[in-house]
Amino acid sequence: MEKYPFNHAYGSLIYREENYHFRYKGVSAAEISLFHVPGEEYHFQCHIYEDNNHWIYLPQEIREFNSSNKKVFEKFGVSPCGSGLFQTKEEALQKAITVIEKILGTYENDKPKI
Length: 114
Known about the structure:
Blueprint: E1 16-24, E2 27-36, E3 42-48, H1 60-63, E4 64-66, H2 70-75, H3 89-107
Antiparallel strand pairs: 1-2, 2-3, 3-4
């Protein structure tokens, strides 16, 4: 936190959270929470909604992941992003969208294709 612009006690910080809703092929599919500490980089957390019509076989443990979860990225053929931090909001959101689409494309309407 070398670039953090505020005086603060150890362990204290202020950060911004932006929430985005994602639709996959017209279906409400996920929520992406984007976090940014002033002066620092961006990271995200994703929650894929349960859906008994479109991705019924999606395991619970894959429904929630964050930008530093290399295991999920690699499982779905997406390059991990180093430390899980991004220079811009757009880079972070694009990576989240890419991973969500890979996951849902694998589990949509059928048993997993992996």
